[in-house]
Tetratricopeptide repeat protein (Paenibacillus antri), 516 residues
Amino acid sequence: MTGIKKERYRFSEAPIWDIQRKYYEEKGTTAWNRGQVPQYITSNPMIAGAYAEMIFAFLQDRAMKEGRSEPVFIVELGAGAGRLAYHVLHELRQLRDYAGIPLPPFRYIMTDLAMNNVEAWKKHPALQSFIAEGLLDFAQFDAVHDTVLSLVGSGVTISEGELTQPLVIVANYFFDSIPQDLIYVGDGQIYEADVEIEYPEHHETLTHSEWLERIALRYEYRRAPEYEQGTYPYRDVISVYREQLEDSHILFPSAGIACLDRLNQLTQAGFLLITADKGDHLLDSWTFAEPPELVLHGSFSLTANYHAIRHVFEQRGAAALFPPHHYKNINVGCILHLDQPMDYPNTRLAYRRRIERFGPDEFFSMKEWVDRNQDSMGLQQMLSFWRLGGYDAEFLIQNAKRIASLLSDANDEEKQDMLRGIQLMWSSYYAMEQRYDLALNAGFLLFEMGMYEHSKPFLEMPVNQDQDEVLSTVYYCLAICCFELELAEDALRYIRKLLEIEPDHEEALAWIRRFE
């Protein structure tokens, strides 16, 4: 074919991984705006609440071991937009204050490959209280190469063996997005599955996303006895694949395991890994697995091999917790690579309670149903699901019209619960660059319920921010709020603003005549 170049690579060394790195370095936090890279499923308040409870339980277990003086560092790999970190810290601080029990101090470290992300987190208004309290710091961290954590805020560098407490590692949508090896099992033999990439000539003019969209992958196989040799560090799990699988393509997370090993070197006490991904921990899931295809979303992702990660660390004495059932959208696991991991009962119970019995995967499946069936739901059902999801802002945004249509029949108790939900949602809202205004949604709903005192501050936010285009409806509602609150001068000011936009607005003109 004219204009097409072909090159063959070992899968983990293919240029797709370099394009992946460059995409995130170039886009920064904007990679997660406007639905480019998925973030909701691993960053919503429900999953963050589950993580916070597991971390809180881990702190309780450490306190029982008399480990209260040294801080526990919580390192999030690939923190991205920062939403998960914010919600985890928000809930963890509330759990700490509510319980009022002796715990080790803790510090959350947000890390990412892109320094642009670190700079954005440092300035984000929602994170400032955590920074001021000493609960949050940041680090640029290359998960494939780096061996130390250099904290940006405190200036501290954490090197090998310096931590006496175990490390808590949070890795969401991480293992599926860093380099992986690709092997093929056939006739009891292990093959390396190289990838031949076809891509347009003069691809230098394409954006990273366009390059990924236009390439074609084709796989070639060669015998790879090195995977079966005693010097190969993961020979045991490869033996499992060779003996129990047939005609199967296996994405092998060598880089991911090596990253965990390097982080483990920072501490004298092991680590707790909490992770969520499109990842299979059951061996049966890899039976007759087809060659991988890139899932494109600006960048790309693959399937994470939790089975290999689990097997490797269980062989080293770790306890691995994964759901006994198959996952649908997201798999959440927990690996206790610690001395005597069964001596962490609170941590294991928290996993059972918040992940195994009903967790983020089940919640997301229910949310998909709610999104499709919101028009048939009543207000109590809406409130119940909103409460289950931790009063998430996205739920209110998606369902504001349906909720508004139900308010005319709501009783006082339901209206009070709606008010409480809005207040809790706003107190834990992590703003990103969005195509909507959450404050207006909240303000209009409160206005519909006749809660003018609570509605007014929300409706005034776009006005006070000097937005170029404020809807005339906002001024209309603000004028009514002020009338009801007996703030006549403010009401008149908003009426005049309304008439600047709609000079023929009949009600506004009638109000002006009344004032005169």
